[in-house]
Please model this.
Amino acid sequence: MRIAIGSDHAGFSLKEELKEFLIKKGYQVKDVGAFSDDSVDYPEFSEKVAVLVSQKKADRGIVICGTGIGVSIVANKVPGVRAALCQNVFTARYSRRHNDSNVLALGARVVELTQAKKIIITWLTTSFEGGRHERRVKQIKKIEDKYLKC
Ligand code: RB5
Model:
């Protein structure tokens, strides 16, 4: 599985740890930056990850900032992206089972490394349930398409 990962300065150190963790687990990881903890603006990095997922150049994306909120807002602006801000394993699991989330947003000032690893593994290994949830995800797409035409 190809995973795109990106963060701002606040998420940099967690991104580095998670990148290492994912590579060791055998995932193919594309890091779009940031490449240091010098202050940067999160929209740039979240957009880069989201576009890779939207264009199917990555299967999934992980975006990290201080709270996870800024990067999730940005990623959800990109058509085809369903970004989920998850602070625990339960929400990570259900963002896959019910929402077919394709981008995971994490807050580096909210979750610590061990918890972030558990969230990521759950998120990467949980399948979408389909069924009635498929209908709802299609409705999300329809709303997205409607406003793209405006
Ligand atoms: C940076 O200080 C912080 O605002 C950013 O990482 C993020 O939390 C924004 O949502």
Summary: The chain has one domain: 2-148. Residues 8, 10, 42, 65-67, 69-70 surround D-ribose (CB under 6 Å).
